[in-house]
Amino acid sequence: MDLAEQLRNIGIENISSSPSQMYCYCTDASQIRGMPECVVRPRNTEQVSDIVKFANVNGIPLVARGAGTGMAGGAVAVKGGIVLDMSGMDRIISVEVENLQVLVEPGVVHSKLNEVLKPQGFFFPPDPGSSEMCTLGGLIGNNGSGMRSVKYGTTRHYVLDLEVVMADGSIIHTGSKTLKSITGYDLTGLMVGSEGTLGIITKALLKIHPLPKARSVMLASFETAEMAGEAVVRTLASGIVPSACEILDSTTIQALKSYDPQLDLSDAGAILLFEVDGTSGAVREGIETIKEVCSSLSFHTKAAKDTAEAERIWSARRMVGAAISRIDPKRTRVYAGEDIGVPIKEIPLMLSHIHKISEESGIPIMIYGHIGDGNLHTGMAIDLLDSAQMETVNKIADRIHRTAIMLGGTVSAEHGIGAARAEYVRMEKGNALDVMIAIKKALDPKGILNPGKMGV
Amino acid sequence: MVSSDQSPELGSVLKCVRCGTCRSVCPVFEEFGWESKTARGRMLLAQGLIRGELEPDQEMIESLSMCTTCGICEQKCPAGATPPKVVQSARQQLVQKGNATSAQLQMYTRAAETGNPLGETANRKQWIDEESEEQKNSEYVYFVGCLGSYRYPELARKTFRILEQLGVALLEDEKCCGSPIMRTGFDAGEFVSHNLDQIRKSGAHTVITSCAGCYNTLKKDYPDEFNVMHVSEFLAEHLDELDLKRLDLTVTFHDSCHLGRSHGVYDAPRRVIEAICDLKEMKSIKENARCCGGGGGVRTGYPELSMKLSRKRLAEVPDNVDYIVTACHLCRNNLIEGGSEHEVIDLVDLVCLAID
Ligand SMILES: Cc1cc2nc3c(=O)[nH]c(=O)nc-3n(C[C@H](O)[C@H](O)[C@H](O)COP(=O)(O)OP(=O)(O)OC[C@H]3O[C@@H](n4cnc5c(N)ncnc54)[C@H](O)[C@@H]3O)c2cc1C
Ligand code: SF4
Ligand code: SF4
């Protein structure tokens, strides 16, 4: 009896095991592939628990998946088994503005939550570029963040409580309805960013934030990316905390212009995009300070005309990673070595290392990302049918990862470790990985939950 | 090793970076939630087919046949991928492998036998007014289309009555433009060459059509020998000659995917409407307009899905309008069948109200 049939026999519905459907689930936005035996789209916690119990008894791999927009193969069934497509559990269960919290199912798409909160004057601050399509479950699974994390932090800072189905099928709550609680170990913190390797999240209680009264966007253009990096170090040291601080290098600028030809961006070596939010007075003051700090390094600064222009810049910026594919019709963007983070002070050095790696390998590497928190995205576009180029890309990614670790940084600041970066966990974390392995063994002794990920 | 130069088909499939943006817009995915029903899924299926890693199965056939080719995924795709084109060529491969659905096969057989996919055997020109004198040669010809000729003869008559006065002729022997045949993956070469001969014979430099499907096909799949205009564009250019009276009405306008997103015809129908009455826009318009659910063979193949999509579009109609105006027969029909509370009329119907 095949797996799908066995699941049907225990009352599970919404299952597919057709080869075509499996092919559609065999990958995410990364280059990692793995064919599941079947995919289930559960509707509630009890169904998830039944499936997990079944998988645990029979030792079958189980991979949670949100929208599959992850860039490290987190949602890919590299060891086969069952994929749990959680995107159908997409109810916003309650919005309690008075308690500064919302209760959601994991399949809610990020932007949908903010659409519901906006009229009430609130928002959920982590804002990934994939806001329109990624799920909150995936965001929690990866501890994702985004452009505003320089001020508002990452997803971890906004999770109050999780309902989690553990590997034996038991259902637990990790946190509390209060905004602060120190009772017991911080299991919420443990689950956030565990990429489906410790449990399946079936509900999340999230903290929300009042929308700022005002926001303003400023662009500063520089001759080189290194000069832009230096400007970031100085701005942050001046005591200003922008709500976003993004870098776009010259190739990124080109990609943005081809994505939205109406964007008015100068042809610079690099542009920094700053956003300041708060009361209108604080915003004005913040923008002035940033202008002043950047003035000795940048050759041009300009403010976005109005909110419409600012929104236009942000929405193009959110998509730029994929838009790189537009520059050359024969090339496609691949995600590899794309998410390193370094301490702020090391940014200029990291940038020059990347330029050196690019020159030596002969493959252009574009740089963009959340430079304000030291998180740099690198982008390479190659002919996917040329296996030699793919090999070079993997070598480049390896060098970028090692350099980031050498500078005291990290191989992934927000996109996840998954299968793509699992080999670097030991290098970056040393014997802390042994502790992680011990936790994994204790919570999932049969290793059914997302095997082959995170080095555990 | 193959490169994308050698395999342009694989090249366009590989343009997809699997970012998932299309999950947020594909109307068919919204109904099902399974990955195979997104544009990304369809791109992967096409890849599996081209690479020989997948054999057609029920899921693949359904996924590819359920695409309305509305193109909103292409509009939003940051990577510049073109899912509707990929879907169409994957459908061709399915047909070549003998995997057409029975609805598609029936449609093709009917078209081959009768010259139109509706299987109508009557004279294609039976709609023409007795009093109308057919001009033989003109620089402009009206391509009536199968729906105009057989399903909406009254509308064809109204359209031609206006066009005729502006010096537009008809083709001597028009056949189906080939659109439904190509979109479902069959070869429409015979239809194209027949109509092309007819157009050449007429001596016209411009072909006018009132069907978004014909418009798209004449523009994209015929040699670039003549201009193609939608009737809304032609009327917008001739507003001064039409002597339209102002009507005390408020209408909304539904953008057809194949006229709008495919060809950027957004302003002409709006100019005509605004010359007649007030226009109140729907919730999503122009590049972002929701599909009515009628295109790509979905209306015939998956009526239930088609009706769901139609109802979602109807939910975007603003309050207090007198009519929903469309510029595409298929859209109009689908919105009516979706149970519109408002009367759904063609742009030409509105123009006639303002002429009478
Ligand atoms: C164009 C683009 C831009 C992006 N920009 C950003 C960005 O700015 N910041 C950022 O952080 N990321 C970004 N990403 C990466 C990715 O979108 C995010 O990490 C996102 O949060 C993943 O969500 P998802 O629903 O797609 O999850 P998936 O990719 O499906 O899954 C991600 C991980 O979470 C696990 N998971 C999913 N659901 C559950 C659950 N219910 N319980 C337990 N584990 C679960 C999966 O097993 C997997 O390990 C971007 C991606 C793209 C394509
Ligand atoms: S939006 Fe484009 S690149 Fe992204 S998954 Fe869809 S088709 Fe692929
Ligand atoms: S053309 Fe429309 S229906 Fe087809 S995949 Fe794209 S968005 Fe979906």
What features would you describe in this structure?
The complex is a heterodimer of chains A (456) and B (356). With 456 residues, chain A is of the alpha+beta class. Among the domains of chain A are: 3-87, 2-Layer Sandwich (Uridine Diphospho-n-acetylenolpyruvylglucosamine Reductase, domain 2), CATH 3.30.43.10; 88-210, 2-Layer Sandwich (Uridine Diphospho-n-acetylenolpyruvylglucosamine Reductase, domain 3), CATH 3.30.465; 212-317, Alpha-Beta Plaits, CATH 3.30.70.2190. Chain A is built from 15 helices and 19 strands. In chain A, strands 12, 13, 14, 15, 16, 17, 18 and 19 form an 8-stranded antiparallel beta sheet that branches. A 5-stranded antiparallel beta sheet of chain A has the order 5-6-10-8-9. Chain A is globular and about 70 Å long. The N and C termini of chain B lie far apart (67 Å). In chain B, the strands form 2 sheets. Chain B has a 4-stranded parallel beta sheet with strand order 2-1-3-4, sandwiched between helices. In chain B, helix 1 packs antiparallel against helix 3 (39-50), helix 8 packs across helix 9 (153-165) and helix 13 (231-237) packs across helix 15 (267-276). Chain B has 3 domains: 8-96, Alpha-helical ferredoxin (Fumarate Reductase Iron-sulfur Protein, Chain B, domain 2, Orthogonal Bundle); 140-237, Rossmann fold (3-Layer(aba) Sandwich); 245-353, Rossmann fold (3-Layer(aba) Sandwich). Chain B has 356 residues and is an alpha/beta fold. Chain B is built from 19 helices and 8 strands. The interface between A and B is large, with 45 and 42 residues. The complex binds flavin-adenine dinucleotide and iron/sulfur cluster (2 copies). One iron/sulfur cluster (SF4) binds next to helix 3 of chain B. One iron/sulfur cluster (SF4) binds at residues 25-28, 39, 42, 67-73, 83-84 of chain B.
Helix amount of chain A: 25-40%
Overall CATH architecture of the domain at 88-210 in chain A: 2-Layer Sandwich
Helix-strand category of chain A = alpha+beta
Fraction of residues in β-strands of chain A: 15-25%
Look up the CATH topology of the largest domain in chain B: Rossmann fold
Based on secondary structure, the structural category of chain B is alpha/beta
H/I helix tally of chain B: 19
Mean of residue pLDDT values of chain B: 92
Indicate how many domains the architecture of chain B comprises. Answer: 3
Strand content of chain B: 5-15%
The largest β sheet of chain B comes out as: 4 strands, parallel
Give me the oligomer status: heterodimer
Q: Overall pLDDT of chain A, averaged? A: 95
Order of helices and strands of chain B: HHHHHHHEHHEHHEHEHHEHEHHEHEH
Shape of chain B: globular
CATH class of the largest domain in chain B: Alpha Beta
The level of helicity of chain B is: 40-55%
Number of strands of chain A: 19
Please report the distance between the alpha carbons of the first and last residues of chain B. 67 Å
Uncertain ranges of chain B: none
